[in-house]
UniProtKB/TrEMBL annotation:
Organism field: Nicotiana attenuata (Coyote tobacco)
PROSITE patterns recorded: GOLD (PS50866)
Family: Belongs to the EMP24/GP25L family.
GO terms for cellular component: membrane
Positions of transmembrane segments: 184-204
A Pfam family this chain is assigned to: EMP24_GP25L
Name of the protein: Transmembrane emp24 domain-containing protein p24delta7
Subcellular location: Membrane
Domain of life of the source: Eukaryota
Keywords: Membrane, Signal, Transmembrane, Transmembrane helix
C-alpha cells in the first residue's frame, strides 16, 4: 500500500509539472516525404483537447513551397476519426474526448523526388491546459486574481480526477493479478494431477509387465 501511494504521488507530481510547464505544450519534429509519423496523447474521458499544427517555411520571406503539404488524421483509441485534413499547410482541431485512452495524431507527406525534409510545429493541449484563459478574461472582464484562482481550482480538480483515475487503474491491475494468480493455481493443480496420473499409469504398466514375465 505504501509503495502504491508513493507511485501515485510521483505520478501526480509529474502530471502537475506537465500541466504547469508551458514548454511541454508545443513541439517541432521532422517528417521526410513519403513517410508518416504519429504522436500519441493520453486523454481522459470527457476531457477537452485542442491541437494546432503548421509547416515551417524553410525560406523566410518567401511563400511556402507548393510541395510542402501534409495529410493529418486524429483518431481515438478505438479508431474513430476526430479530425482529417488532406494536403494542407496548417490546421487546428478541437473536441471533447468520448473515449478514454491514447489518441493518435498522424502526419503523412506525399512522396517526392528528391526526398523533402519537412519541419512541423505541433501544439496539443488537453484538460486544463486546453482552456484559453486570455479569452475568458477578456470576455468576462474578470480580475487577474480571480483568473488565477480559477486556474488553481481547475488544476486541483484535475489532480483530484487524476487520483481517482490512478486508483481505478490500480484496482484494474489488482484484479488482473488476482485473475492471473487464480489461473496459475488452477494450472498448477492440473499439472500436478496429470503428473500423478502419468506416474500411476507407469507403475501399473510396469506391474503388469513384471506379472506377465512372472518376475513378481
Amino acid at each position: 500500500m505504501m509503495m502504491w501511494r508513493l507511485r501515485m504521488l510521483d505520478s501526480i507530481l509529474i502530471w502537475v509539472i506537465i500541466v504547469l510547464s508551458p514548454l511541454v505544450d508545443a513541439m517541432r519534429f521532422e517528417l521526410i516525404s513519403g513517410t508518416s509519423k504519429c504522436i500519441a496523447e493520453d486523454i481522459k474521458h470527457d476531457a477537452m483537447t485542442v491541437g494546432k499544427y503548421s509547416l515551417v517555411n524553410p525560406n523566410d520571406g518567401y511563400p511556402l513551397p507548393d510541395n510542402h503539404k501534409v495529410t493529418v488524421r486524429v483518431t481515438s483509441p478505438y479508431g474513430n476519426n476526430y479530425h482529417f485534413m488532406d494536403h494542407v499547410e496548417s490546421g487546428t482541431f478541437a473536441f471533447t474526448a468520448s473515449e478514454g485512452g491514447d489518441y493518435m495524431a498522424c502526419f503523412w507527406a506525399a512522396d517526392h523526388k528528391p526526398p523533402l525534409n519537412l519541419s512541423i510545429d505541433f501544439d496539443w493541449k488537453s484538460g486544463v491546459a486546453a482552456k484559453d484563459w486570455s479569452k475568458i478574461a477578456k470576455k468576462g472582464q474578470i480580475e487577474v486574481m480571480e483568473i488565477e484562482l480559477q486556474k488553481l481550482f481547475d488544476i486541483i480538480t484535475s489532480i483530484h480526477d487524476e487520483m481517482f483515475y490512478l486508483r481505478e487503474r490500480e484496482e484494474e491491475m489488482q484484479e488482473l493479478n488476482r485473475a492471473t494468480n487464480s489461473k496459475m493455481a488452477t494450472f498448477t493443480v492440473l499439472s500436478l494431477l496429470i503428473c500423478l496420473s502419468v506416474a500411476g499409469l507407469q507403475v501399473w504398466h510396469l506391474k503388469s509387465f513384471f506379472e506377465k514375465k512372472k518376475l513378481i
